[in-house]
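Hi everyone, sorry if this is the wrong subforum. Our group has a chain we'd like a structural model of before ordering constructs, and none of us has done structure prediction before. Sequence below.
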Amino acid sequence: MASKKVRPIPRATAAEHRILQALWRRGPSTVREVWEQLGSDVGYTTVLKLLQIMREKKLVTRDETRTSHIYRAAMTETEMQAEVVDGLIDRVFGGSASELVLRALAAKPVSPAELQAIRLLIDQADQRPPPP
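Answer:
Right subforum, don't worry. Here is the predicted structure as tokens:
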């Protein structure tokens, strides 16, 4: 069985992840717009430097056609979550999604609404044909 090639995902620091969240919420933005989204606890030049680093890491793209450069997240939040989870399953749980789910359910309390959503996903998974 051929192993699935895991695309290395650049790891975002906590500060970079806050910037990604601002870009996901607001959409394509200038440095100033991102800085304003983050609030007063971070300096403008810090945001600028982080965006430059994030561009090198391919976490964001930059449109240089305007005077103020526009930054965009390189992938959607859902795409990043999926890739991170896929990588986590492969690297930490030996390719077993069930081990990840069991560990996640054991780690923190789950609300009744979350349990209902999980049951729905299980029911949907039961309806799919088995993998080859």
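For your construct planning: The radius of gyration is 19 Å. The chain has a mean pLDDT of 89.
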